[in-house]
Write a structure and sequence with these properties.
The complex is a heterodimer.
Chain A: E1 31-32, E2 38-39, H1 45-70, H2 84-93, E3 99-101, H3 107-112, H4 121-125, H5 134-137, H6 148-162, E4 174-179, H7 186-198, E5 202-208, E6 211-212, E7 215-216, H8 229-232, E8 236-240, H9 244-259, E9 265-270, H10 289-296, H11 300-310, H12 316-338, H13 358-372
Parallel strand pairs in A: 3-4, 4-5, 5-9, 8-9
Antiparallel strand pairs in A: 1-2, 6-7
Helix pairs in contact in A: 1-2, 1-11, 1-12, 2-9, 6-7
Chain B: E1 4-8, E2 18-24, E3 31-32, E4 37-42, E5 47-51, E6 56-61, E7 68-70, E8 74-79, H1 207-216, H2 234-252, H3 261-264, H4 276-289, E9 294-302, H5 304-315, H6 326-340, E10 346-349, E11 354-357, E12 363-365, E13 367-369, E14 372-374, E15 377-378, H7 386-401, H8 407-410, E16 415-418, E17 438-442, E18 446-452, E19 455-469, H9 475-490, H10 492-499
Parallel strand pairs in B: 12-16, 16-17
Antiparallel strand pairs in B: 1-8, 2-4, 2-7, 3-6, 4-5, 6-8, 9-19, 10-11, 12-15, 13-14, 17-19, 18-19
Helix pairs in contact in B: 1-2, 6-9, 9-10
The chains are: A alpha/beta, B alpha+beta.
Chain lengths: 379, 500
Amino acid sequence: MAKGESVPGSDIPAGGFVQLLTPDGERIDSVTTADGATYSVDFTDEEYRGLYRDLVTVRRLDTEATALQRQGELGIWASLLGQEAAQVGSGRALRSQDMAFPTYREHGVLYCRGIDPIMPFGLFRGVDQGGWDPNEFKFNTYTIVIGSQTLHATGYAMGVTMDGKTGSPDGEAVIAYFGDGATSQGEVNESFVWSGVFNAPIVFFCQNNQYAISEPLERQTRVPLYQRAGGYGFPGIRVDGNDVLATYAVTRAALDNARNGQGPTLIEAYTYRMGAHTSSDDPTRYRNAGEVEAWKAKDPISRLKAFLTKQKVAKKDFFTEVDEDANKQALALRERVLAMPDPQPVTLFDNVYPNGSPEIDAQRKAFIEYQASFEGSGH
Amino acid sequence: MSRIKEFNLPDLGEGLTEGEILAWLVKVGDTIELNQPIVEVETAKAAVEIPAKWGGVVTRIFHEAGTVVEVGMPIIAIDTDPSAGPAGPSDTPGDGTSADPEAGLIGGPAPGGRTAILVGYGPKTTTAKRRARIGTPSASPTAATPTPPPAAAAGSPAAPVAVVPAPVAQPVAPPAPVSPEPVLASPEPALLSPAPAGRTGPVLAKPPVRKLARDLGVDLAAITGTGPMGSVTREDVQRAAEGLAAEGTAQTVTVERTPATTVLDGSREQRIPVKGVRKLTAENMVASAFTAPHVTEFLTVDVTRSMKVLEKLKARPEFAETRISPLLLVAKAVLLAVKRNPMVNSTWSGSTGEIVVKDYVNLGIAAATQRGLIVPNVKDAGRLTLRELAEALNTLVLTAKSGKTPPSDMTGGTLSITNVGVFGIDTGTPILPPGESAILAFGAIRPTPWVHKGKIKVRQVTTLGLSFDHRIIDGELGSRFLRDVGTFLEDPEAAMLSWT
């Protein structure tokens, strides 16, 4: 049995997972799984500090978004609290040519892709469609319908193969994000079938945060989720999703397999949603405080901080500076969200067709006239 | 220079119309920071903390805890620049006292606090305030006019456009022959035309309104709709139902009472929404009462010696700082009796087909709080010394009374005590908290004539009531456990010496 895997204990799920950094901040050099794959990371001090900065910034921005929702400035918010390591670890493992397909919670991956964090806020504030150019950032728009993005990702990945962009170390890979609840969806299973059969260059990245809104994992599956991959004919692996190092290592390896033409991998990042499913949800109604407390002890940020401190990679000044910088970014984000203009009703005719259409143009014209028929100006 | 800003209650979920203020975390005069939690609000969906939208000084709190506030109403005012000296009340642009009660309302007020919709903000159920069209009569086509009784609706002058002769709607009259000629052509585009005074097609009403009509026994066809396109609105149905009720009473009322409506309209009934702790308690009690077969046994004991021991303890330096009460000795008695009868401290696990016997006692104490009954527990109480136990109990009760019991204190209880004696009650048949197998009711201690050493004396006597889960605990075990608790309370010193 490999070190770091299948260690019995309350912190590690039955069947084990790949872990390179324990909740106490102890570093495990490398992990070799039963199929002979070895996982490790070799970061410079600067890279370690960079990961820490990512985690803290992403959490701080998320906290600000939650506050904005509570203050009536956002219609809804899906918090990533607790899942920072799974998102930053996998997001930083992506290379510039790789394409990512997110759900509506991947704010951390979005951040790692270099997208302005303000981008999704138009959607959650209800003032625009929340769009960015997926091709520019290699990051698809947020997908609300559970699991549907795995089909888009599979089709995209099959296209990558058809374009002949796989089969080399510099090939392209695709990553599809989804949650534990989505594994019960037909779309996800269809994606598994097609990707397996066509050897698509895709990584299925499942953040198992233990709850599909209020449904616990045991109502989704009788076997660990990563084991499902075997039935579709590709490898599955479970990683400690609260360990940014292990998540990075496992995702990097799976993406490299995909870009080299080795086909799909299912990664189950074992993590926990510390907050509510969305701001409309009250998790205290379906899970107990003791469980949340137990997961608090496995926090992704505190374990990396403990490691950096122990290894003397970072000192107090650094941590303070990171906190202050994240705070500044959060306040700037707040100002920008509050300054977002309300849309004009007529903009609802925009973005229907890429190059316009006579029918839509006529409707827009009629609508403008109709609006002008009211007393007073504006809308 | 409006530096005093009012914060309105936002829609905290999707389509909520109101929230109940549970507790204020700040008070007038407090200096607060941006995003500092200021208030706990419970909605139909969740109880949440709201963070402050601005830093500054709290100048006004509009609603006390316990108030149900509509979304969009101001709840707190904050002076965002207190260093600039006192701010006059005129600085407040939309002072809550003069605020339009309709301001910012999303959807309409609905029973249960939300508009029944799946997602999004849902339909407005209130009458829309629509701007006038240029070149049309200024009277708003959708303005709600007092609805005349159905029979008088024919040719109603309030109807702005009467295209068809209005049929005289009668509940029993077949509608078809009344309308001589269905004229569909209308001078205005149909989509935005005001309601025609007469109906030619089927009754227009939204499904929830149809259900309401069915529930209230109102015939939709008999109502003249005041909604868009002549559709029947919720208000129309309610008005019609009131009419029916009045009719009904008029027929059945007897000579003794003339204002009979006050008897039947529910004005003397108070309706309290079931939510929060009350809801949880109800669910727990029903689940427990109908899952675990309860047996209750009683034992009346002479606790005179316990009371003396309590006095002795109070005099000891170890307890100089600690308040102690008879509950402490009852708790100790229960903990020692569990040690002698471990099966009492167990859980029936139906899903695994097992009885889980616990080696630790998380001792629950039922506490009456402002928000309702809660049963926080002392974790691993069996390991505590008597003084530690006393302190833990005091902390537990004080925390519960102040409403600050954390959820972790309320989960994982293994066995509980309910101290009904503090209400002057002799005993009761308590219902088990879910997952627990025994609960002890501890009654009032009263001076009582009692046979003591062969003579009738006045002694301090109380009655214990023990409910237990008969799936796990047989009468014999339950009786032994209760007897042990009683034996301890009759002579704590001897029990301590012989059992520990």
